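Please, structure for the following, as tokens.
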Amino acid sequence: MKTLEQTRRLDFFLPNHQAHPQCSVNYLWGPARGKMFGVLVAQTSTGKQVHLRAFSGQYNGIWQVPGWVNPIFDLKVFHEVHDQEQLKIKQLSKILEGLAPESPKRQKLIRLRKKKSQQLMRAIHNLYRLKNFHGQRARLEQIFASSADRKGLPPTGTGDCCAPKLLQHAAVHNLPPLALAEFYFGKENPSGTRQHGFFYPSCQKKCYPILGFMLCGVEQQREKMNITRR
């Protein structure tokens, strides 16, 4: 948090002359408001501690920033699945704006747009193959459906929060976690539930249903690597 306040940018690993305008923290104090950030402390097989960093979702339209963990999905495949279909959905929305509210054609297009949106969401969710510390992999929908009291599709943005991104990176790279913290940085959110500089637990609706699976095997891996839990 202090580093963000001092450098005023996310790409602080790069020299100043390579700083990207879209990585400025000024973005977090404008209309877009603030964002959740997370840090995970993990340990390598040699006993060295490493610090992983993540921001929730995209940052000012960017999915990847040097020094921060990547999204869970393959970004190239995401664009192949998302971009064209999202354009079609936006085109339908434009057509709807010009139709009378009670027009039969409008009602038909609303149903078509909803269907396309649901199909796109399923296709995107299928890109999230979560891995835990037992080495098991599962699709997002599989994990979400197996959680108690969960029905239907996972909410939009599931898997894009800091904790899932950090744990996925740790599991893929065999880095058992020791500690994790998430904090909010920037202008208070519209509902007033997130304020600058405060730490918050993982969200109930999107993260809790999948974190149980993602944390499976952590204790066994710690024991295997002779790591004392903190």
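The beta strands are 35-43, 49-55, 129-131, 137-139, 177-185. The mean pLDDT is 92.
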